[in-house]
């Protein structure tokens, strides 16, 4: 566990992979690696269709854009085969972590308010220009 300021991390959440076709991606992990894959879920607020690939103590989050306004659409335009989109780190308290990130000068993509995950949990994304080029989700 990381104990430093400003964002104390308590664990690893997932690696998110943007894919052009969720069904093909789900079948790939089932057929080639024997993975258990969750049922797909539509996240209207993010305009994505997603599923989780269960890998023991962690997960892959597979995300397919729904329409051109999805934030994942531009990623797929630049990377037609898909690819790693972001990593997710877990924290004990998302609001406290967001305050710490702001105080440290890290930009939160959703601005002042926290975003909501598909399960209703608070989360936020740190700007990749502030995080060594990696989009980081905090939940």
Distance between the termini: 15 Å
Instruction: Count the DSSP helices.
Output: 3
Give the low-confidence spans.
none
Question: What is the structural class?
Answer: alpha+beta
Number of domains: 1
Estimate the strand proportion: 25-35%
The appropriate CATH architecture is Roll
Global Rg? 15 Å
Description:
This protein is α+β, with helices and mostly antiparallel strands. It has one domain (11-138): Roll (2,3-Dihydroxybiphenyl 1,2-Dioxygenase, domain 1), CATH 3.10.180.10. It is built from three helices and nine strands; from the N terminus they run βαββββαβαβββ. It has helices at residues 22-33, 71-78, 94-103; strands spanning 11-18, 36-37, 41-43, 48-55, 58-65, 83-90, 115-116, 122-126, 136-138. Strands 1, 2, 3, 4, 5, 6, 7, 8 and 9 form a nine-stranded mixed β-sheet that branches. A hairpin with a 2-residue loop joins β4 (48-55) and β5. The chain is globular. The model has no long low-confidence stretch (mean pLDDT 94).
């Amino acid at each position: 566990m990381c104990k430093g300021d400003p964002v104390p991390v308590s664990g690893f959440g997932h690696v998110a992979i943007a894919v052009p076709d969720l069904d093909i991606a789900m079948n790939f992990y089932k057929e080639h690696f024997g993975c258990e894959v969750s049922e797909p879920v539509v996240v209207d607020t993010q305009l994505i269709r997603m599923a989780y690939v269960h890998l023991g103590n962690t997960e892959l989050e597979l995300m397919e854009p729904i329409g051109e306004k999805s934030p994942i659409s531009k990623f797929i335009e630049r990377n037609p085969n898909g690819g790693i989109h972001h990593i997710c780190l877990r924290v004990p308290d998302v609001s406290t972590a967001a305050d710490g990130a702001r105080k440290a000068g890290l930009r939160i993509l959703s601005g002042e308010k926290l975003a909501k995950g598909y399960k209703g949990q608070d989360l936020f994304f740190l700007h990749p220009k502030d995080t060594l080029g990696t989009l980081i989700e905090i939940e």
